[in-house]
Design brief:
The chain is mainly α and 331 residues long. The protein has two domains: 7-186 and 295-323, 3-Layer(aba) Sandwich (Rossmann fold), CATH 3.40.50; 207-280, Tyrosyl-Transfer RNA Synthetase (Orthogonal Bundle), CATH 1.10.240. The protein is built from 14 helices and five strands. Bound molecules: tryptophan. Residues 9-11, 13, 44, 47, 133, 136-137, 145, 147, 151, 154 line the site of tryptophan (TRP). Tryptophan is lined by residues 9-11, 13, 44, 47, 133, 136-137, 145, 147, 151, 154.
């Protein structure tokens, strides 16, 4: 799994139901990367506790996320998948990195500012969030980090933290490169902003046809097409762009023509999209159902992943302690 391959690390927050934006924008890419890289993927629960959340729900969200990732095709024999809090080295290295992390830059991070605006009291975890992210990546000496555009700034800060640490304590951490924009950018049901749980505009990944219909029927189409008899313009319609991911090219061309001539209405077009998404994702739903029926298997996979992650992380941490002159012996 590891020999001669360069290393990829990425993280995903257990922040709610997986949706098509996650799947097309990130997870498919994660699966593809396992072909060429030694991939380490982490469910970042320690990041998730920096914003208000329900403790009684977190375990289940972690589990559901693992099910969704595995069902989407992440093969635990071809990558490492684990839960961040099961590897305490993440929190420990974060502390060490805090000593070189520039406060001014932390407080200028766009996501920090956005999130602080949404809470009554700003906790220090929210400020140090990018330092934990740097620890995630540097613990594994990862060279590539697949992330969305919104994480570019955090990645740049990781590189800066690595540089500062290396300058102070000797060259040790490689500066990771972001792999940005390899996933697809998916707009939500509003047809305006990126599909995201915080925008409440998502299409759930594991929904059956009926549930899919209940959300897709609300999707915004070409705003200029008001009545059924108005011709539409697929070029500006987000429902049509979703067809691009799930509908075979011949049917897509047919829909394109019918829309422009008002041969079909938006409802028909959405019905076809719903049916195509449902059948395309049926194998994922089936795998998810199997995994949901076997929680021990899922936790086993995560625990095995954590063991492998720890075997790497503990060495890095011991070296970091040693280079910083701290009195810790080998693991
Ligand atoms: N902050 C990332 C996000 O919200 C998640 C994350 C945490 C991450 N640690 C990471 C991504 C390390 C890449 C590498 O999407």
């Amino acid at each position: 799994m590891t020999q001669g391959k360069s290393r990829v690390f990425s993280g995903i927050q257990p922040s709610g139901e997986l949706h098509l934006g996650n799947y097309l924008g990130a997870i498919q890419n994660w699966v593809a990367l396992t072909e060429t890289y030694d991939c380490i993927y982490c469910i970042v629960d320690l990041h998730a506790v920096t914003i208000p959340y329900q403790p009684s729900e977190l375990q289940d969200r972690i589990y559901q996320l693992a099910v969704g990732l595995l069902a989407s095709g992440l093969d635990p024999d071809r990558c490492t998948l684990f839960v961040q809090s099961a590897v305490p080295e993440h929190a420990e290295l974060q502390w060490l990195l805090n000593t070189v992390a520039p406060l001014g830059e932390l407080s200028r991070m766009t996501q920090f500012k956005d999130k602080s605006d949404r809470v009554d009291t700003v906790n220090a975890g929210l400020l140090n969030y990018p330092v934990l992210q740097a620890a995630d990546i540097l613990l594994y000496h990862a060279e590539h980090v697949p992330v969305g555009e919104d994480q570019r700034q955090h990645l740049e800060l990781t590189r800066e933290i690595a540089r500062r640490w290396n300058t102070r304590f000797g060259d040790y951490f490689p500066e990771p490169q972001p792999l940005i924009g390899q996933g697809k950018r998916i707009l939500g049901l509003d047809g305006a902003s990126k599909m995201s749980k915080s925008q409440s505009n998502t299409i759930p990944l594991l929904a059956d046809e009926e549930e899919l219909w209940s959300v897709i029927r609300m999707a915004v189409t070409d705003p200029a097409r008001v009545r059924r008899d108005d011709p539409g313009n697929p070029d500006v319609c987000n429902v049509f762009s979703l067809h691009g991911h799930f509908t075979p090219p011949a049917e897509r061309d047919e829909i394109d023509g019918l829309c422009r001539t008002a041969g079909i209405g938006c409802v028909d077009c959405k019905r076809r999209l719903t049916a195509n998404i449902a059948s395309e994702l049926a194998p994922i739903r089936e795998r998810a159902a199997e995994l949901l029926a076997d929680p021990d298997r899922v936790w086993d996979i995560l625990n095995t992943g954590a063991k492998r992650a720890r075997s790497i992380a503990s060495i890095t941490l011991a070296e970091a302690y040693e280079r910083m002159g701290l009195g810790r012996r080998d693991p």
